[in-house]
């Protein structure tokens, strides 16, 4: 679709929230109404409408659905969670960041289409904020992870791995001046070191075309900067020679071939510039890399990465390395389903981004914080601004009234033509520090660290932090561990 059509698609998706959500729920029930899980809740083909769904189906956690999920993963071809005409085609692995081990989230074939559609809307949104942004290339650090196969023969992989291994991505032609600078072979290499090296090499070789630099999460961009600090000399040598060194870092033949094609012919002038920028100290004797992103990619106009929630702690470091380039948190997504878009991606503090849930992605309900009964669930069009809710989704992949675990705050105001409410990510449900009756969530902890870090001496900054509760003495207290960067280089202490 053309840009205007894509932008119109957003308006169409969000114009009639109630009607769209009713249609989505009806579609899901038509597909999955015969499933064993919904039958166990008291739904039948004769009484499987929206009203019966809301009256009979309880809220569910992963543990509630786990026996059904494991049956499908084990090869049960009965309509366990989804209907017989809508079989589970793969399992998406949750990150496991809040609950320990990754969860197996069922997905169906056309879920990929919904996810890709949402991603296709990012470029026209960003181009509205920064006209001409899509005329150059994006340097995106994307990585696949090794995938597994369930006992029943279905793939189990991360959401990003599923997207990147799709035919649409794998079969795209390589063009450093349109789309992404990273060749498909580099992105699809499961060796993270080779993949990062190859993506940096191609991104540096075509630095003039790069108008945006991104990664899935803010921390991914910091990983790229740290990798550049360790490997800039080898990268400069390869760019000067017009081919990867032998044996070098790149041992995968397909990756070497893709990088060799991107580096030809050699560019001695660029190699000298990389050496000069990366070997020199930052002005004022501060730590390595001040403004390095903007210095190496001078036409980059923004960074794209999720910087909300736990990623907010990395915003100051990204500001240091990019000389203050704006950061866009564009997509709100989960393993369960893609959820929404930030319709004002360069507006304000990136850690405070607001997302508009796209009502075609799934059926959304919201549990007011402090309540526990499914009868208290609120539909998307009826949330109250200023109130916090736990997100509950019903997906095409067979999750019914599933508690995602995200706590969102409904924000006042709608975006332009959108009738869909906006939400701010607050925290993961249950992620709390607690001493006695005190409870501190991750947002409060982040604010405390930000305030305390202002007292650090010049040339020092917080790279990362973690925390725990110490109840060995009275009174109990929290212990916060900081990982600091100090001049002249990124020394860890």
Describe this structure in words.
Belongs to the IAA-amido conjugating enzyme family. InterPro entries: GH3, GH3_C, GH3_M. Keywords: Ligase. The protein has 17 helices and 22 strands. It is α+β, with helices and mostly antiparallel strands. The chain is 35% helix and 23% strand. A hairpin with a 4-residue loop joins strand 10 and strand 11. The strands form 5 sheets. The protein has an 8-stranded antiparallel β-sheet with strand order 10-11-12-17-16-15-13-14. The protein has 3 domains: 208 residues, no CATH class; 140 residues, no CATH class; 61 residues, no CATH class. Helix 12 runs parallel beside helix 16.
Write a brief structural summary:
GO terms for molecular function: acid-amino acid ligase activity. One of its GO terms (cellular component) is cytoplasm. This protein has 17 helices and 22 strands.
Q: Averaging pLDDT over every residue, what do you get?
A: 87
* End-to-end Cα distance: 51 Å
Number of domains: 3
Task: Give me the number of helical elements.
Answer: 17
Radius of gyration: 24 Å
Helix-and-strand structural type: alpha+beta
Question: Largest sheet at a glance?
Answer: 8 strands, antiparallel
In terms of quaternary structure, the protein is: single chain
Counting DSSP E segments of at least 2 residues, the number of strands comes to 22
Low-confidence stretches: 434-439, 471-476, 488-493
Tell me the fraction of residues in β-strands, as a range.
15-25%
Q: Helical percent range?
A: 25-40%
Shape: globular
Strand order of the largest sheet: 10-11-12-17-16-15-13-14
Domain GH3 middle: 355-428
Family: Belongs to the IAA-amido conjugating enzyme family.
Keywords: Ligase
Domain GH3 C-terminal: 444-489
């Amino acid at each position: 679709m053309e840009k205007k059509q894509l932008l119109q698609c957003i308006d169409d998706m969000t114009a009639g929230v109630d009607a769209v959500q009713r249609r989505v729920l009806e579609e899901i029930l038509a597909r999955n109404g015969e499933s064993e899980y919904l039958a166990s809740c008291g739904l039948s083909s004769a009484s499987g409408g929206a009203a019966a769904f809301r009256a009979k189906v309880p809220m569910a956690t992963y543990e509630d659905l786990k026996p059904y999920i494991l049956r499908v993963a084990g090869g049960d071809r009965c309509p366990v969670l989804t209907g017989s005409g809508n079989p589970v085609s793969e399992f998406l692995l949750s990150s496991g960041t809040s609950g320990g081990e990754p969860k197996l989230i069922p997905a169906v074939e056309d879920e990929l289409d919904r996810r890709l559609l949402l991603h296709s809307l990012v470029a026209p949104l960003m181009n509205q904020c920064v006209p001409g942004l899509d005329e150059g290339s994006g340097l995106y650090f994307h990585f696949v992870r090794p995938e597994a196969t369930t006992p029943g023969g279905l793939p189990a992989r991360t959401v990003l791995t599923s997207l990147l291994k799709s035919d649409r991505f794998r079969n795209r032609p390589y063009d450093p001046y349109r789309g992404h600078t990273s060749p498909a072979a580099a992105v699809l290499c499961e060796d993270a070191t080779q993949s990062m090296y190859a993506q940096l090499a191609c991104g540096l070789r075509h630095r003039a075309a790069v108008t945006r630099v991104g990664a899935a999460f803010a921390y991914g961009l910091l990983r790229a900067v740290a990798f550049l600090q360790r490997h800039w000399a080898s990268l400069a040598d390869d760019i000067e020679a017009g081919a990867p060194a032998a044996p070098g870092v790149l041992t995968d033949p397909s990756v070497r071939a893709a990088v060799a094609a991107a580096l030809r012919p050699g560019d001695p002038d660029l190699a000298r510039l990389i050496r000069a920028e990366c070997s020199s100290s930052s002005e004022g004797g501060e730590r390595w890399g001040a403004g390095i992103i903007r210095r190496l990619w001078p036409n980059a106009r923004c960074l794209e990465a999720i910087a909300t929630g736990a990623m907010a702690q990395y915003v100051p470091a990204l500001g240091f390395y990019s000389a203050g380039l704006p950061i866009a948190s564009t997509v709100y997504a989960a393993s369960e389903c893609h959820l929404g878009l930030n319709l004002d991606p360069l507006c304000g503090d990136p850690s405070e981004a607001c997302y508009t849930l796209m009502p075609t992605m799934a059926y959304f309900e919201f549990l007011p914080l402090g309540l526990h009964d499914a009868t208290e669930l609120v539909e998307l069009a009826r949330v109250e601004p200023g109130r916090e809710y736990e997100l509950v989704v019903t997906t095409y992949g067979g999750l019914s009234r599933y508690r995602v675990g995200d706590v969102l705050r409904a924000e006042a105001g709608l975006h332009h033509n959108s009738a869909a409410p906006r939400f701010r990510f607050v925290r993961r449900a249950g992620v709390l520090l607690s001493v006695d009756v005190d409870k501190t969530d991750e947002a409060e902890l982040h604010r405390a660290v930000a305030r305390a870090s202002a007292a650090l001496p010049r040339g020092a900054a917080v790279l990362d932090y973690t925390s725990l509760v110490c109840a060995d003495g009275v009174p109990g207290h929290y212990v916060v561990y900081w990982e600091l960067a100090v001049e002249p280089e990124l020394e860890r202490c």
